[in-house]
């Protein structure tokens, strides 16, 4: 009887473990410090950054720099990534503040009700995903799984989890202090994935203190198939002498 009870408990535990293994919903926030509407959207995105089961990434774009303020975090490759979503998401041109959810849907960041509905839909739409394992600081393994026609791409995203305060001195947001969360500092394409277990070499981070997220995604702005953040490195233990200071 005890054996049967233990077996029942194990079966009950399986759904909980499976639920915990679900990949996070990836929300890409395309923004610019010189965009007036983006300042309003920051607060909503900052709340998403704290939400369990969601990884919110702030991608700063540079195409509003001509308004008088050069975005301090913008890189050309971020705007190129946003442009890749135009055709799949049936858009004519890029805009800010935009949220792209799991590479499959999008909405303005100033429409929280619409975004919440898309987040719920993204959770319901999640399918079996390949396993992702970080092997030390310089290698990532992606397991087997279903793959779209043409394969998929593996991306490494590094972002700063610390809140960043930026004082805007010119342009539409002149005089405002913007707080931005999970600011992306680099994105690197590691290679193709064709549904078979594959190991990838990860480049060394360009800055200290960055968080790493691996994304497996259909090519040319397609749907995100899997995502996994790398566990933060444990803090170094303090010596007794240091702790006493």
- Count of helix runs: 5
What pattern of helices and strands is seen along the backbone?
A: HEHEHEEHEEEEEEEEEH
Q: Tally the beta strands.
A: 13
Structural class: alpha+beta
Strand order of the largest sheet: 2-1-3-4
Spans of at least 5 consecutive residues with low confidence: 1-20, 239-245
Distance between the termini: 57 Å
User: In percent, how helical is the residue content?
Assistant: 10-25%
The best one-word shape is globular
Indicate the proportion of strand residues.
Answer: 25-35%
**If you compute it from the alpha carbons, what radius of gyration comes out, rounded to the nearest whole angstrom?**
20 Å
Mean pLDDT: 88
Summed up, the domain count is: 1
| Largest beta-sheet details | 4 strands, mixed
Tell me what you see in this structure:
There is one protein chain. The protein is an alpha+beta fold. The chain has one domain. Helices cover 24% and strands 30% of the residues. It has 5 helices and 13 strands. Strands 2-1-3-4 form a 4-stranded mixed sheet. A 4-stranded antiparallel sheet has the order 10-7-12-13, with no helix packed on it. The N and C termini lie far apart (57 Å).
């Amino acid at each position: 009887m005890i054996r049967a009870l233990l077996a029942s408990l194990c079966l009950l535990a399986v759904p909980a473990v499976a639920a915990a293994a679900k990949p996070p919903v990836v929300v890409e926030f395309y923004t610019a410090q010189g965009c007036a509407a983006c300042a309003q959207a920051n607060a909503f995105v900052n709340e998403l950054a704290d939400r369990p089961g969601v990884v919110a990434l702030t991608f700063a774009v540079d195409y509003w720099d001509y308004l008088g303020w050069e975005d301090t975090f913008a890189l050309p490759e971020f705007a190129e990534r946003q442009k890749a979503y135009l055709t799949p998401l049936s858009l004519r041109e890029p805009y800010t503040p935009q949220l792209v959810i799991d590479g499959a849907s999008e909405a303005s960041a100033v429409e929280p009700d619409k975004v919440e509905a898309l987040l719920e839909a993204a959770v319901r739409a999640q399918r079996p995903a390949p396993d992702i394992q970080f092997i030390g600081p310089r290698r990532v393994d992606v397991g087997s799984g279903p793959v779209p026609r043409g394969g998929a791409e593996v991306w490494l995203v590094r972002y700063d989890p610390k809140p960043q305060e930026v004082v805007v001195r010119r342009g539409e947001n002149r005089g405002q202090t913007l707080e931005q969360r999970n600011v992306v500092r680099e994105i690197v394409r590691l290679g193709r994935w064709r549904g078979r277990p594959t190991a990838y070499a990860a480049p060394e981070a360009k800055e200290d203190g960055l968080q790493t997220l691996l994304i497996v995604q259909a090519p040319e702005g397609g749907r995100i198939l899997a995502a996994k953040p790398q566990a933060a490195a444990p803090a170094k233990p303090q010596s007794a002498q240091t702790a006493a200071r």
